[in-house]
Amino acid sequence: MRRLRNSHGSSEAGMIARAWLIADAGKGFSICLTAIGWIACGGCGVEQAASEKQSIIHLSDRVSEAVVESAAAPVASQQELTWDFAASGSAWRAVSSDELPFLAAVELVALSDGTRLTLERPEQQRGPLLIGGIAVEIPELRFDQWETVLLRARTSDRFAGVTLAYDVDNAKAVPRPRVFFASSDEAPPLFNDGSVQTYAIPLRAPSVPLASKDREDSEAAETPSAFAAGEGGEAKTTFHSLAVFFAAPATAAIDILSIELVPRGAAFSDSVGNRSVVRRGTTRQTLFAHTPASLGYSVDLLPKSRLDFALTVSPGESVTYRVSTDRGGERSVLFEQTVDDSETWQQYSVDLAAEAEIAGGDVQVILEAESEHDGAIALWGAPILSGQPLETRPNVIFYVIDGGDADLMSLYGYERPTTPYIEQLAKEGVVFTRAFSNATWTQPSTLSFMTSLQHSVLGGLGRGIHSSSLPKAATTMAEHFRRGGYQTVSLTTNPNAGRIIGLDRGLDYMRDVETEHHSTSSLELEDYFWKFREAYPGGPYWVHFQTTDVHEPNQPEEPFAGQFVTAEQRAQLQAWDDRIWKVAGRHFGTTSVIGFYDLALEATKIDRQEYFSIRKGLYDETMTHQDRALERLVNRLKATGEWEHTILVIGSDHGHPAGTFARFGRGLFDPQPEPWQGALFDAYATRVPLLVIYPGKIEAGRSFDEPVSMIDVLPTLLDLVGLPQPEILQGQSLAPLLRGEPQDIRPVILDEFRVDEVTGKMIGNLEIIDGDWGASLEIAPPVEGVEAAFGRHSVPAGGRWGAVHPFFEDVPKLLLYNLKNDPFAKQAVNEANPDLVRHYGKLLLEQWEAHRSLAVQFGETEGTAIAPEQLRQLKALGYIQ
Questions:
Q1: What is the pLDDT of residue 44?
Q2: Which of 292, 357, 456, 717 could be joined to 753 by an S-S link, Cβ 3.0–4.6 Å?
Q3: Cα 283–286–290 angle (5° rounding)?
Q4: Which residues contact 549 (CB under 8 A, 6 or more apart)?
Q5: Which phi and psi (to 5°) does residue 824 adopt?
Q6: What is the pLDDT of residue 128?
Q7: How far apart are CA 437 and CA 546, in angstroms?
Q8: Using CA atoms, how far apart are residues 541 and 489, in angstroms rounded to an integer?
Q9: Tell me, what's the pLDDT at 88?
Q10: CA pair distance 877, 192, nearest whole angstrom
Q11: pLDDT digit string, tens, across residues 203-262
Q12: Residues 6 or more apart whose Cβ sits within 8 Å of residue 63
């Protein structure tokens, strides 16, 4: 165990605080682009020969360098259907509890520029959300002729999201609550800052599995597009009514200004371009053109060169694709295929090794497409040219166990043997024993570690109960690695870590859809990974996994089921859950998750200890499955020979409370802490695993026990592979530690914020872990009649349900904890440490000013210039290189 220098005394804290925020300056890195290849000189961690050619070329990124011939996009065969709610909103009718008792009451009121829709609680609410909407009857339309619905609206109230439905004269077509919790592109969250926003919701034909069609209350019909068209049953081909449904945790109003139905192909209005295209939950960075089309790329082929790509078409179209080469006027057709399947991606590969040998590498690769209908859309999904250079950078696998709590892993001393393989794997790498996520749930945490920027800097929660989408000025981990010549892949069964917050940027390939069985998600995602490797065997690659094995609902399978929970206990838990939702379900979303379970357990008289103990046991069983899945992945990497040239990082986005709504860690304390006690850095909430394995390159079998952060992963990986650091980042590279070099570690900052609906200001928690001390500062708009130093919410104010948390007027806004004695933040020690309270209060306010200055470049003030004084401050803190 290597101990790192730190100090916790208030007399030295000022000097230490300044030192902690000084980052190492990025080392030099120059790029020379020649044709489609580039030469890397220098490097931060792994030196490469100056003659090395790039082994991965993303043709979709190089359109400007190609010789392009493409037809213009045709005029749509049908014009948009548009409803202006200031003039013609009366064509739409309310869909409410008046006709379907499980829906909310809906009130429609005409405004000067639109129609206000208000969701109100019905007499008998049956679910955790108020759901209601509007519908319009239309002439029979074909799904394959229309693409998107554009909704223009504004609200200052908190909504869970919006989605579409079709033919709602059938009650099964109405969306159920789970649709809005999934946060998919089909149910996007709504901004609630009062601004006018346009939401693009894809039009997808719904389908019900054949086995479920005759069931009276089919779970398969829970979402109007629960399954992709044609997947698992017969898809609808037409619709005669269109509905827009909203969901909110409590009474809420939204002003609808207009709704527009956009015809198919409108998204491809340019003659040629590049955009993300989704087929059955798989997103690919896609090169598109209109037939007849030809794109010629002059390239210097490497040995063993190949071109890998997937093909699809728009509904109702057929396109013939070709791949040719031209060597000094000698043309060769190497591939030809006609595609008419618009529902899936079809994967293909073209071997270019012979062309490289014949032409000495210098050749033009030509992508062609033609159709019997001029202007048809040709779609090449993730067209990647790869070869075999003499040297290459290592592969990177960033494996995130969603909701993986370090305190519930035997690797970190937990009494149950939940992670025996990870314990064995840790001997091959480095373990950080006190790693923390930057927030308590997926969206803010994932955005932060993917950008090395804090949640408030990126805009906080700006869409109801959801985070604002990734700002354009921020750069993701995938984008950094893609620019560095990597194939980039993201595989997750948690939509909160995908497209919904803009994390499809920089990716060749993404799966970010929910699975039918979360507790075995790791195996599903690993299978997708190996299918990708089979289709794209070139390298190097960067892959992000985010599994949901330990995420609620915990439904362990054999042989893991039964390890810690008996069949009788599982049956008892199911009966209790049914009772909880029947008795108290209407309160979900009206208070915090913690508050909901407190209320529900009290109302049902269910024993807290028994209830949470069984839930914890199920979580532990799914953790053992996750452990075994990691073993399967690593063993196959070793069998294929990829392990020795791969960096594996294992981490998590948060601890268990957000991953499983029932807080079976903190909830088992007896007696229960005061409701206002606690912080983001409660070990159950944010202490996460962090392991780094790089075979043969870093000394194995070591551990470090100083606090580090998931926000440090991005700069660490860039450092290890030799890619340049971003100009602005808030994490620090831990690569010096991994290489055995001395390094002072900064204290950890945690940051979770939302935009207050009333004031428009940020509200949330900014916290610090400085050795054994933890300080939590709530930053919130002033409350009338309460001194500025006092008044605090019962749990972090920046959470998803922060607006409805109870408020304690006589509690200091800054709480200090001794984490060595109290890692779960059960008892603040303000009174015994007034000097530290003053010190950390001042320090966190200074830190907050730095975050606000950085938000000028990102977040809600994107594009505004930083003042010179702010710039000097941020450089001194190490946030700007």
A1: 33
A2: 456
A3: 135
A4: 401, 518, 519, 520, 521, 522, 622, 623, 625, 626, 629
A5: -100, 10
A6: 74
A7: 14
A8: 8
A9: 64
A10: 33
A11: 888 864 434 333 333 333 333 332 233 334 566 789 999 999 999 988 999 999 999 998
A12: 272, 273, 274, 287, 295
- 577: Cβ contacts below 8 Å, ≥ 6 apart: none
Do 816 and 828 touch, CB atoms closer than 8 A? yes
CA 162/CA 164 separation, integer angstroms: 7
Distance in angstroms (rounded) separating the CA atoms of residues 71 and 376: 9
**Is the peptide bond between 695 and the residue preceding it cis, with omega within 30 degrees of 0?**
no
Helix, coil or strand: residue 462? coil
562: alpha, beta or left? (left if phi > 0; alpha if psi -120 to 50): left
Residue 435 makes CB contacts below 8 A (sequence gap 6+) with 406, 651, 687, 688, 689, 690, 707, 708, 709, 710
- Kindly state the helix (H) or strand (E) to which residue 410 belongs, with its residue range: none
* pLDDT (0 to 100) of residue 77: 52
pTM over 0.85: yes
List the beta strands (DSSP E) in 694-782: 702-704, 708-709, 748-755, 762-770, 773-779
Calculate the dihedral angle through the C-alpha atoms of 857, 861, 865, 869, rounding to the nearest 10 degrees.
Answer: -80
pLDDT, residue 182, reads 65
| Placement of tokens 């079998």 in the chain | 701
Per-residue pLDDT at 856? 85
Q: Which residues contact 590 (CB under 8 A, 6 or more apart)?
A: 249, 250, 596, 804
Amino acid identity for residue 667 in this structure: G
The CA-atom distances, in angstroms, between 787 and each of 676, 782, 792, 808, 813 are 17, 8, 11, 12, 10
Q: Write out the two tokens for 96.
A: 């409410």
Element (H or E) spanning 572, and its range? helix 567-584
Residues in the chain predicted with pLDDT less than 50, given as ranges, are 1-52, 208-232, 860-881
- Cα atoms in the 13 Å half-sphere on the side-chain side of 775: 26
Return d(Cα 428, Cα 228) in angstroms, integer.
Answer: 42
CA distance 648 to 399: 7
Q: What is the DSSP letter of 210?
A: G
